[in-house]
Amino acid sequence: MNISKTLNIVTISHKNEIKDVIAKGQRVYTKFGLLFLYRDNIEVLNKIGILVKKQSGNAVKRNYIKRIIRQFVRNEYILLQHYSKIIFLFNYKGKISYNEIRDTYINHLKKYEKIITNSN
Predict the structure, then answer these.
(1) Rounded Cα–Cα distance for residues 66 and 70 (Å)
(2) What span, in angstroms and rounded, lies between the C-alpha atoms of 33 and 38?
(3) Is the Cβ–Cβ distance between 52 and 65 less than 8 Å?
């Protein structure tokens, strides 16, 4: 499935690829769950995985969460383009909105980038 045809972003579909990103990627802990960020030789974001646990709610709510995260990826592509593969592991039970998710992910990603640039 294409998340964005204009940006050429597709979903991670193979189980082995998901396991590889989880094993080798950097973890960022957020209020909503984990982000796994993986840098390959390619500097362009090309694959996204969105995993929403069943504990987060019924199918309607889980699909809503996936739509919100896909929209976040489309809107904040510049912030995410330094990684070749990203997995969003969502595990949150409360009510959410797009603005809340956007603000949380942006803050955590910016903090993570500062840590990475300071350590190099």
Answers:
(1) 6
(2) 17
(3) yes
Its sign, for the CA torsion 103, 105, 111, 117, is: negative
Supply the pLDDT for residue 68. 94
Q: Compute CA distances 86 → 57, 95, 100, whole Å.
A: 23, 24, 19
Contact 93, 62 (CB under 8 A): no
The predicted-structure confidence for 29-57, as pLDDT tens digits, reads as follows 999 999 999 988 776 778 899 999 999 99
Pairing label, strands 47-52, 9-11: parallel
pTM confidence score? 0.85
Q: What is the DSSP letter of 94?
A: S
Residues 88/2, Cβ–Cβ less than 8 Å: no
At 58-68, the pLDDT tens digits run 999 999 999 99
The predicted structure's pLDDT at residue 81: 83
CA distance 51 to 12: 10
Helix H or strand E encompassing 36:
strand 33-38
